Amino acid sequence: MNPTRIKLGIIGGGQLSRMMAFEAQKMGIYIEALDPDPKCPASYVANSLIVSDFYNEEHLAKIFHNNDFITYDIEHINAEALKKLYDKEPKIFPSPYILEQIQDKLLQKKIFERAKVPAPAYRKLDKNEIENFESDIYPVVQKSRKGGYDGRGVFVLKSPADKANMLKTDSLIEEYIDFEKELAIMAARDKEGNIKLYPVVEMIFDDRVNICDITSAPARVSEKVVKEVNSIAEAIVENLDGVGIFGIELFLTGDEKVYVNEIAPRPHNSGHYTIEACKTSQFEQHIRAVCGLPLGSADLVIPAVMANILGDESHTGKPLITGLKEALQIEGLYFHYYCKSSTKPFRKMGHITVVDNSVDSAFKKVSQAKNIIKVISEK
Whole-prediction pTM value? Predict the structure, then answer.
């Protein structure tokens, strides 16, 4: 198929959809997005936009029939409706059957069990059992089975006193891993089963809201750990028979044990650095896989550090960026703005990536830039 004749529909119009659209248009691929916000980030880049919520079956059918292939940039969509469409013509990737498993943290755990990869021990906790919850060990982690993202839907119980603040929803109770580092890897798989693995990266989270703050590539870990993470990633995407790119988050303990935490069936925040630092960005790679094109090289060209630009915690409203002119004077810095119509505390408004000869030097520059760039609201 000639890439310049391909039409790709993306369910979701957030920043991931926006960055996919940029890469698709480089190859002449037509992009149609679906999102409830007529001024969503992708609306400024996509060729067309269907304004709809993610559960409207009529509009999901419309984007399905309008395009050669379908993908998505968010998990919280109507998997049941997409399964019916997929059964008629299997052109949604990753498939809605994979999406359905990843939407539910319990079913996601079953993926890890089938793939025989190490993951924290867990048990199911239904909503009606929360009032009588007991644990012999603390801390433990409560995760809502559905709907969590960007730190939402996770609660750490440090002692029995925390029971009063538990999430009131169907959940998992998970073993608390005393990790030294949080790692991630992007894994791409095409329709023929070929796999490309990106470098293992290290993530640092903003403790205030449990959102990824900084990603550094490559991770400063041993070759043994890299091999273990690569093996886990391959096992998961092979077991899923997945097509597209997958973001896999992991824990690393002080004695170099690796545990898989979660998986996302789409481009991932931890892979944004690939735009400047790898031969093929995660967004282009996802499009290649979904559209039946050959996968590109996932090799790292230069060390990089990415940092999210979050909305200032004391500002809500029309966004105003400050400090950008000064930050752009930093050598090797790239700025990405998502064009969201409003800012609010800790909302992902953009990101910066710094490429340099070493992770250490890039990290210093990113730290400098983060202290300069702010997203506040207009007065």
Answer: 0.95
